UniProtKB/TrEMBL annotation:
SUPFAM superfamilies: Ribokinase-like. InterPro entries: Carboh/pur_kinase_PfkB_CS, PfkB_Carbo_kinase, PfkB_dom, Ribokinase-like. PANTHER family: CARBOHYDRATE KINASE PFKB DOMAIN-CONTAINING PROTEIN (PTHR43085:SF57), HEXOKINASE FAMILY MEMBER (PTHR43085). It comes from the Bacteria. One of its GO terms (molecular function) is kinase activity. This is PfkB family carbohydrate kinase. PROSITE patterns: PFKB_KINASES_2 (PS00584). The keyword Transferase applies. Belongs to the carbohydrate kinase PfkB family. Gene3D superfamilies: 3.40.1190.20.
Length: 300
């Protein structure tokens, strides 16, 4: 079978409105003056993963539901500008959108508009099957309606990854993703015991690798029943925004893993890409390029 796509990214296409606020949590006030401006741009989790993978030279394709609306036009324009293949299935409810409040230290608070979708939304089975069978690997966002596509993806023979983001380890919505993927990413931010959650994912699902990112503490990698800590990389410039850091980590990890690096070495790639992303304002969609990533991973 010919697999002309290195990575198919399923879901996670949308638009964010970025607001830089004086502090988080934001105290109540009648109004705030935002001197840095308020900007709406294309780019949610799936968009940032596919941008990161493309910047590293992988052949990528993005599949999701998009509305016939200004937000959808922004997503389409971003993919055209970056030369990334996009299959957009019409979404009558509109394109996914969110508002991200970003504090001075780069932390963010995201407000997701859940009205841009319906419980019975589905991606066309024939489209999912054809693209998955043409792909070496599929990265699945946890946005609706990707869970319903997981059985088809498993049948395709492609390896799967997913990012559970700030899962608390209990919410049942995330479990189908956690148990279907070969590589599982998640944030340690909401976990009382990250190792316990990571081992539960590995025990109950099919994951070969589970990776918990921990911000300035680096990342923890569970592979072959062994937990390894990978230190955080030093950001190459001032940290301004954590938006997209996890997506950058996942893209760089997958680049290395698909090129047969070890899980721990792949996580090192991820920490470097994630640190780079923290120095890029959320209003920008610039991903680390392969030459820079390889230079930094080669530096002792």
């Amino acid at each position: 079978m010919s697999r002309d796509i290195d990575v198919l990214v399923l879901g996670g296409a949308g638009v964010d409105t970025i607001v830089y606020v004086p502090e988080l949590p934001l105290p109540y006030a009648d109004s705030y003056m935002i001197d840095s401006g308020i900007r709406t741009r294309a780019g949610q989790t799936g968009d940032f993963v596919v941008l990161g993978l493309a910047a590293l030279g992988l052949r990528v394709h993005h599949l999701d539901l998009l509305g016939d609306d200004p937000e959808g036009d922004l997503v389409r324009a971003l993919h055209r500008e970056k030369g990334i293949a996009l299959t957009a299935i019409p979404q009558p409810a509109g394109t996914k959108r969110a508002v991200n409040l970003v504090g001075p230290d780069g932390r963010r608070l995201s407000l997701y508009d859940t009205s841009r979708g319906h419980a019975d939304d589905r991606l066309p089975e024939a489209t999912v099957r054809a693209l998955a069978e043409a792909s070496r690997h599929v990265h699945v966002a946890i946005t609706p309606p990707c869970a319903e596509a997981l059985p088809l993806l498993r049948e395709s023979g492609a390896t799967l990854s997913t990012d559970l983001h700030d899962w608390d380890g209990e919410n049942p919505y995330h479990e189908p993703f956690a148990h279907a993927a070969d590589v599982v990413f998640l944030s340690a931010a909401a976990l009382a015991d990250p190792e316990r959650t990571m081992r539960r994912i590995a025990d109950r699902g099919r994951a070969e690798v589970v990776v918990a990112t921990a911000g300035a503490k680096g990342a923890y990698v569970l592979a072959d029943d062994e937990l390894t800590h990978v230190p955080a990389a030093t950001p190459p410039a001032l940290v301004v925004d954590s938006n997209g850091a996890g997506d950058a980590f996942a893209a760089a990890f997958l680049y290395a893993w698909l090129n047969r690096e070890t899980p721990a070495r792949s996580a090192q790639y991820g920490t470097i890409a994630g640190a780079h992303a923290c120095t890029i304002p959320a209003t920008d969609t610039t991903a680390i390029r392969l030459d820079e990533l390889l230079r930094l991973t080669a530096t002792p």
